[in-house]
Design brief:
Structural class: alpha+beta
Largest sheet: 5 strands, mixed
Helix content: 55-70%
Order of helices and strands: HHHHEHHEEHEEHHEE
Strand content: 5-15%
Number of helices: 9
Number of strands: 7
Radius of gyration: 37 Å
Shape: elongated
Distance between the termini: 51 Å
Length: 356
């Protein structure tokens, strides 16, 4: 049986039970001295119920049967209408679910009316659909960008191999070196994609981590890159206890510091790495000097394969996933990445994570 039919039968059953109890109370308190044989309804007594001049125990039995029959019919009809009205929101939610299952994530229930349990369910379902639609759109955009980025080194490799095949007398040393560089970039991009997928899936064990030590390790690791580009790195801050994957948090800090070094002034740039504790959270902040950035541009830097305006590929330019990986790792640790332009040029990247 459907839920509507079960509710209808329940309403009718409770209504008849209430009527039977009321009739039983009348018999107990008013007609208990009357012999039961006088209360048994007989077919000949039913017309007397509708005669205003007739009264007494003789018509109690037929009247009780008619009342219970009326309550049964009224309970079934009224219960069916009432159950349909109560379950109408579920029908809208079911239709929206079917549309979502068919691939239409843009549809919303938007249930009108007062704030009750059905309204809460519909609002929660709409919020889930909105998150799914955003996630699917991001995944499609990411897949398109990843395909485009991976196609470039593969096409370059194919072209270099064609050159080597069509010109056997050509010096192969240069071709091999270029193939090596292209292959290295393809490997770096693939590893970045795998790391991003791992962060999105949250497939890691949580441990106690001091974020200040992680930041210091990332800065020390990248000191040679900073020295080569003439960039100074300063680290300072307090002990910042957090919970998460040490490897992923180290990758997060390394990406932030690397991004700050590479996208800096041509000479004489600086990077500041600091950690701190706030009520209920710990913060890692990486700032760097550099060109003036608009808020519109900064808002797109954490998108996959975004490298900012007028940024060129160099030996350390990365694959365009650095800040996207940082954001995914931060979200996987129930934190957030905030990017803001620095007054005077450069970028301020702040990662806030829950404290232990």
């Amino acid at each position: 049986m459907s839920v509507r039919l079960r509710l209808t039968l329940s309403y009718a059953g409770f209504l008849m039970l209430a009527g039977a109890m009321l009739l039983g109370a009348v018999w107990v308190f008013l007609l208990r001295d009357v012999p039961l044989r006088n209360l048994i309804p007989r077919l000949a007594y039913f017309p007397l119920v509708f005669d205003p001049s007739n009264a007494g125990p003789i018509i109690f039995g037929p009247a009780a049967v008619l009342v219970l029959t009326f309550l049964l019919v009224f309970g079934l009809v009224g219960g069916w209408i009432l159950a349909g009205s109560m379950l109408a929101p579920l029908t809208r939610i079911t239709n929206a679910t079917r549309m979502a299952a068919a691939g239409s994530l843009s549809h919303r229930v938007r249930l009108p009316g007062r704030a009750d349990e059905f309204r809460e369910l519909a609002d929660a379902f709409d919020a889930m659909l909105a998150r799914l639609e955003t996630h699917v759109a991001e995944q499609r955009r990411f897949a398109a960008n990843a395909s485009h980025e991976l196609r470039t080194p593969l096409a370059t490799t194919h072209a270099l191999l064609d050159v080597a095949r069509n010109d056997p007398s050509r010096d192969t040393g240069e071709l091999v070196e270029r193939l090596r560089a292209v292959n290295t970039r393809a490997i770096d991009l693939t590893e970045a994609l795998l790391l991003l997928s791992r962060a999105d899936q949250r497939s890691f064990a949580r441990e106690h981590v001091d974020l200040s030590l992680v930041a210091e390790e990332a800065a020390e690791t990248l000191l040679p890159v900073a020295d080569k580009r003439g960039v100074t790195i300063e680290t300072f801050g307090d002990i910042t206890p957090a919970s998460g994957s040490p490897a992923l948090l180290l990758q997060l800090a390394t990406n932030l510091v690397h991004n700050a070094i590479v996208h800096n002034l041509p000479d004489g740039g600086a990077v500041w790495v600091s950690t701190g504790v706030r009520p209920g959270s710990v913060v890692l902040t990486v700032e760097n000097t550099g060109e003036e950035l608009t808020r519109e541009l900064v808002a797109t830097l954490a998108e996959p394969f975004q490298r900012g305006a007028e940024r060129v590929r160099t030996d350390h330019a990365g694959v365009g996933l650095g800040l996207a990986i940082v954001r995914s790792i931060a979200q996987a640790h129930d934190g957030a990445l905030t990017l803001t332009p620095r007054p005077g040029g450069g970028l301020r990247a702040t990662v806030e994570l829950p404290t232990v």
